[in-house]
Amino acid sequence: NLYRFLIGCAGSDNDILDRCPRSEHIKHAGFGALVLVPATLGLFSMTYAISTFADNPYLYVTAGIVWAGIVFIFDRFIISTFRKKGSVLKDVSSLTFLSRVVFSAFVGIAVAHPLVLLYFHESIEVNMAEVAHAKMDSIENVYQLKKKDLQIQRDTIDNTAKALSDTIHTQESILHDEIKGVVRHDDRTTGRAGEGPTFKYDTAYLHRLYADLDQTKKSNIAKKMENGDAIAKLDSTRQSKIGRLTFSHDYLEREKALNRLTASNSIIKITTWFLIIFFILVDILPVTWKGLTSRGPYDEYLNEIELTTKNEVQHHVIDSETALTIHRRN
Q1: What is residue 155's predicted lDDT score, i.e. its pLDDT?
Q2: Tell me, what DSSP letter sits at residue 188?
């Protein structure tokens, strides 16, 4: 019987309810349904939370069921132990009611946050992907800047040898014109044919240029090798850094992604708070609803039974004390 099940979820006594009108059955079945709602949400909440870092469905489904059971037990205990007083005002202003509402709110927060992450699942995935690409782009940008510097150094090495080669070609042309007696427009020749003092000086200078070029080529070979090693080392460092990058999609990373989204988008921030408050209200609804309902026949019968039981216990205690006193006197 569905009514019996829901009444059991509310922690109500069926024997007492059997003495009450049908309306009391419906009311307490409603309490039971309200207790089931947070437990059901807790099932999905914890299942999703554990699934973000565990791939085994048996593990996260079991965790969800266990958490749903814990939420159910908490809410059932809270609503079943709440006793109605003479008026609704006394109920909602009592320390018992307020303490149960606060505790239910904490349970609601624990249930709500994973469900908020689930609601923004797609946006969170996009944000985490953007962060991952940003990390890789950062490494790539640093690598490209350093590699560009090394390539500029290599070009500078080649330019030094090229400048010497150009100077040698120019000097060879001057020597050719000097020995022929050609007058150049740059006044680099004397205009007298033959191997005069200027020719000998220019020849010596040309030989020094040949020696410098030879030395520069040898030096450039070593510099290019060092440059190549530096580029290879830079490539290796880049690959190593990219290889060490880890892009976790666990619960903590999703929390960080949600914080980034709420910080950058006011609509997401408002929606997040709305959902959290909504799930908190859902969890405090059973005890709140019971506190706001008027005292019914069930509460009267329950109070009568508890009072009768209390009086019987007191009578037994008094009888036992009296018997003990008589026994001691005898």
Answers
A1: 77
A2: -
